[in-house]
Design brief:
This protein is α/β, with parallel strands linked by helices. It has helices at residues 14-29, 46-49, 59-76, 92-104, 118-127, 135-144, 172-181, 189-193, 201-220, 247-261, 271-282; strands spanning 3-8, 40-45, 81-86, 109-115, 158-162, 228-230, 237-239. It is 47% helix and 13% strand. α5 (118-127) packs antiparallel against α6, α9 (201-220) runs antiparallel to α10 and α10 (247-261) crosses α11.
């Protein structure tokens, strides 16, 4: 049930690398030396879900695309499948949510970053014609891209392949070791047994998320139409979905986020940023 998240700029070769990785996994699994449990390899992503590039041009369609991807991953993750998520995964909030899906089923996972200069990705995109991204959309997505950070647990372990270097190949042996040879955590062990390591963590989790909810409600009271709201504790902004948010919506998001992170502590100074990212994905 290993989970692989591809990440990269538009036209950075994510699908090419996904297909290559699928072939390498199937080849290794078919070798007689492999004596572990039987595994299949599956790719899920925009192409398998019928999501077009244009979906990323409108917030409402992008939200639906992200929801469809998360639902597909939740359905496909199993003890018998290596799941490769071939999607942009260009914001850390979405990678965090996919990480949480994997954590819920106690699976090993990793992120593969298809690194490429923006100029080279732009050139490749232009050669694809109608199959590529619209020029303006490409620039917008490139600007919004948040590179994986190996320090963040949802981006770790991180494997980077340089797409514009023809001699750079997937570090398959390391990927195999991280996903197949490593023992996955016991089901629910982290949430059931791991103690809270910071005595004031739960207080800070509740305080930080409530402050953000209060800030959103306070700004909305002004009646001035806004698309972004600045909130305390982070430079990340709450992206409004073209309407005001209700108290019940905000409470629901806060309850879901705190439930996910109550027993497995985050770094306290990262709570506001991660909560805002969680809100932006789910609004």
């Amino acid at each position: 049930m290993p989970l692989v998240m591809m990440s990269g700029l538009p036209s950075s070769g994510k699908t090419t690398r996904s297909l290559e990785l699928k072939h390498l996994f199937e080849e290794r699994l078919a070798q007689p030396e492999y004596q572990h449990r039987k595994l299949s390899v599956q790719i899920v992503g925009d192409s398998t879900l019928g999501v077009s590039h244009s979906a990323y041009a409108r917030a409402s369609e992008e939200k639906m695309a992200r929801g469809a991807l998360l639902s597909a991953v939740e359905r496909a993750v199993s003890r018998e499948t290596i799941l490769i998520v071939d999607a942009p995964n260009y914001i850390k909030g979405l990678r965090y949510q996919l990480y949480c899906v994997g954590r819920e089923v106690s699976t090993t996972q990793c992120v593969i970053h298809c690194a490429i200069p923006v100029a080279e990705a732009r050139r490749i995109n232009q050669t694809r014609g109608a199959e590529g991204y619209d020029e303006n959309l490409f620039e917008e997505l490139a600007m919004r891209y948040e590179e994986p950070n190996p320090v963040a647990k949802w981006d770790s372990p991180l494997f980077t392949v340089i797409q514009h270097d023809p001699d750079d190949t997937l570090p398959f042996d390391k990927i195999w070791d991280a996903l197949v040879e490593q023992r996955a955590p016991a089901p629910n062990f982290a949430t059931a047994m791991k103690p809270v390591t910071e005595t004031n963590y739960l207080f800070e989790l509740d305080r930080a998320t409530q402050e953000i909810i209060n800030a959103v409600l306070e700004v909305q009271k002004s009646g001035v139409p806004m698309y972004q709201i600045v909130v305390p504790g982070t430079d990340e902004k709450v992206q409004l979905p073209g309407r005001s948010l209700t108290l019940s919506e905000l409470r629901r998001l806060r309850m879901q986020f705190t439930k996910l992170n109550r027993q497995v502590p985050l770094k306290i100074d990262k709570i506001p940023e991660l909560f805002v990212n969680y809100m932006n994905i789910n609004l």
